[in-house]
Amino acid sequence: MPVSEVPRILKRAEQYVKQTKFKEALALYDQAIRLEPKNPEGWSQRAGAKIEMERYAEAVTDCDQALLLNPNHSDAWARKALALSQLEQFVPALAAAIRATTLNANDATAWYVKGICLEETGKSEEAEIAYAKSLELEILLDIKAEKDRVGR
């Protein structure tokens, strides 16, 4: 199968994740990574599936691989932050969340994880700011989704 098929494979895998068909999704992510191992998107998306499956340590490993390939991959940083926070490694999770929100200030999940990590490390006031930013972004995303749904 040619490398040009990787985007289609990743899209199909993402659909399987949404349907909670993780075995199928992982098989496709593995295929995409075999075809194009230097594409950070395959590693990052596979990490997302592993987070959904509560395989957090494996997700961190996949995020690290994605970040070796592209140190500015904001989704990989956000997923790493989420996985580390689930492993209760709040200090490195906070560092990853800060990097994620620096690279993509509109990532509501990264802001939320940042809030959790700040709270867990005793920085309650900063946590409230991060939570507020996350909520603001979620509201904006909901408004956009509603506009898209009704056709503007």
From TrEMBL:
- Is-annotated flag, keyword Protein biosynthesis? no
Listed SMART domains: TPR
Name the UniProt key words of this record, in alphabetical order.
Answer: Repeat, TPR repeat
A GO molecular-function descriptor: molecular adaptor activity
Q: Does the keyword Repeat apply?
A: yes
Kindly name one Pfam family recorded for this protein: TPR_16
Alphabetical GO biological process terms: post-translational protein targeting to endoplasmic reticulum membrane
Task: Return the GO cellular component terms, semicolon-separated.
Answer: membrane; TRC complex
Gene3D superfamilies according to UniProt: Tetratricopeptide repeat domain
Q: Where are the TPR repeats?
A: 6-39, 40-73
Superkingdom of origin organism: Archaea
Which InterPro entries does its entry note? SGT, TPR-like_helical_dom_sf, TPR_rpt
Q: What is this protein called?
A: Tetratricopeptide TPR_2 repeat protein
- What species was this sequence derived from? Methanoregula boonei (strain DSM 21154 / JCM 14090 / 6A8)
